[in-house]
């Protein structure tokens, strides 16, 4: 940890050496992270998701931008207590791992109305997006809640993090 200059007595040469060392370490970490993210340059390489579907990098690049209406309909259906948990799992990337929590949310929302208003949508790469969402309940409105979405299986879905945001509001919080 670096302490304020008034409490640390270090010669000018040692301070410069320390700054150069920190900069060198930072640069090495950046290069390592960049190299770790590099993969095949083959634009048609494929990957298999946990659901067993195969997608290509070209498919991900072709993901249509989500509309406010699409995301709002998705959120409304996810929070609708009359929609069975098994059906809601299809609205979430890897949603089957959240079935029990979704069922808990359904029970908690049985006589409780929650509405969503999707605002600004920001693309986070070819297959991810974040939207600012106003969440309204009988207790008031929470504006600009960041909600994460992912394009998967040919449609926009809640990312696991996005689902966990809603589940947490419904007192069915996700565990790490």
UniProtKB/TrEMBL annotation:
Region named Disordered: 38-66
Signal peptide: 1-36
Positions with biased composition (Low complexity): 45-57
Record keywords: Signal
Domain Low molecular weight antigen MTB12-like C-terminal, residue spans: 64-174
Stated name of the protein: Low molecular weight antigen MTB12-like C-terminal domain-containing protein
Family of the protein in this entry: Belongs to the MTB12 family.
């Amino acid at each position: 940890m670096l302490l304020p200059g008034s409490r640390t007595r270090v010669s000018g040469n040692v301070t410069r050496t320390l700054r150069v060392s920190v900069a060198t370490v930072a640069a090495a970490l950046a290069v390592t992270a960049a190299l770790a993210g590099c993969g095949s340059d083959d634009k048609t390489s494929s990957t298999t998701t946990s659901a067993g579907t195969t997608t290509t990098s070209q498919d991900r690049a072709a993901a249509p931008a989500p509309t406010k209406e699409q995301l709002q309909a998705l959120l409304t259906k996810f929070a609708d207590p009359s929609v069975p948990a098994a059906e809601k799992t299809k609205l979430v990337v890897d949603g089957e791992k959240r079935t029990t929590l979704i069922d808990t949310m359904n029970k908690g929302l049985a006589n409780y109305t929650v509405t969503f208003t999707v605002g600004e949508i920001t693309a986070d790469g070819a297959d991810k997006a974040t939207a600012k969402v106003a969440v309204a309940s009988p207790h008031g409105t929470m504006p600009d809640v960041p909600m994460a979405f992912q394009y998967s299986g040919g449609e926009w879905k809640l990312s696991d993090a996005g689902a966990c945001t809603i589940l947490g509001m419904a007192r069915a919080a996700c565990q790490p």
